[in-house]
Design a protein that fits this description.
- This protein has 225 residues and is an alpha/beta fold.
- 25% of the residues lie in helices and 26% in strands.
- The protein contains 6 helices and 11 strands.
- Strands 3-2-1-4-5-6-7-8-11-9-10 form an 11-stranded mixed beta sheet, sandwiched between helices.
- β7 (137-142) and β8 form a beta hairpin.
- It is elongated and about 60 Å long.
- It starts with a strand and ends with a helix.
- Residues 137-218 form the RCK C-terminal domain.
- Keywords: Ion transport, NAD, Potassium, Potassium transport, Transport.
- InterPro entries: K_uptake_TrkA (IPR006036), NAD(P)-bd_dom_sf (IPR036291), RCK_C (IPR006037), RCK_C_sf (IPR036721), RCK_N (IPR003148), Trk_Ktr_HKT_K-transport (IPR050721).
- Residues 1-117 form the RCK N-terminal domain.
Length: 225
């Protein structure tokens, strides 16, 4: 898979390193000469250019990319890169970094963004996830399909503890994608049983989040008495 990353700062280089280790082809683009540090990511392609300019993106052969990641520290730049990647070059997957949470509402399909990653939101979500049991935590928003990646740790008193996944009447527009149990990562099947303390990851429509949280946090009859 060919991936172009706009922004060769610490974030862009870190992403590039991970992708290269996984066998992908990576191009780093930055307009600042000081950001071009080939020795830091020697296996990547490097391009000194302004990713907001069509001529630069032509030189980067963006039409050959499977994914574009707008990872600069400037939200305006990330929006422009995302829009150009999607509308001018038809890139199938566009991921954009959100630096200022106040701008998060802009990072949607209207600007060509498939996945918006808000670092401040993600950090706060991880803090919430570390201290919350029974509360739904939103980890990431997917622009296409109007869905979020959400997490909830099943509390000990939940009525669903011990219930098989296939026997749960899940809300519409939700999908249980992963169960994290201790050190194990499980792909849930209908026969798997939920256990207290399980970290459950869902892709869910925003309108279903409250319903999902109520379902998973519902206490047993014994606890209610």
């Amino acid at each position: 898979m060919r991936v172009a990353i706009a922004g060769a700062g610490a974030v862009g280089r870190s992403i590039a390193g991970e992708l290269l280790e996984n066998g992908h082809e990576v191009l780093l683009v930055d307009k600042a000469p000081t950001a071009i540090s080939v020795e830091r990511v020697p296996l990547a392609e490097w391009l000194l250019a302004d990713a907001c300019e069509i001529t630069s993106l032509d030189e980067a052969a963006l039409q050959r990319c499977n994914v574009v990641i707008a990872a600069t520290g400037d939200d305006k730049v990330n929006l422009v890169v995302s829009l150009l990647a999607k509308t001018e070059y038809g890139v199938p997957r566009v991921v954009a970094r959100v630096n200022n949470p106040k701008n998060e509402w802009l990072f949607n399909e209207s600007w060509g963004v498939d996945v918006a990653v808000s670092t401040p939101r993600l950090m706060s979500a991880l803090v919430e996830e570390a201290v919350s049991v029974g509360d739904l935590v939103r980890l990431m928003r997917f622009s296409q399909g109007d869905a979020n990646l959400v997490e909830l740790t099943l509390p000990p008193e939940s009525a669903l503890a011990g219930t098989r996944v296939g026997d749960v009447a899940w809300p519409d527009d939700t999908s249980l994608v992963t169960i994290i149990r201790g050190n194990r990562v499980l792909t849930p099947s209908r026969e798997d049983s939920l256990e207290a303390g399980d970290e459950l990851l869902f892709v869910a429509a925003p309108a279903r989040e409250e319903q999902l949280e109520d379902l998973l946090s519902a206490t047993t009859d014994a606890d209610q008495r």
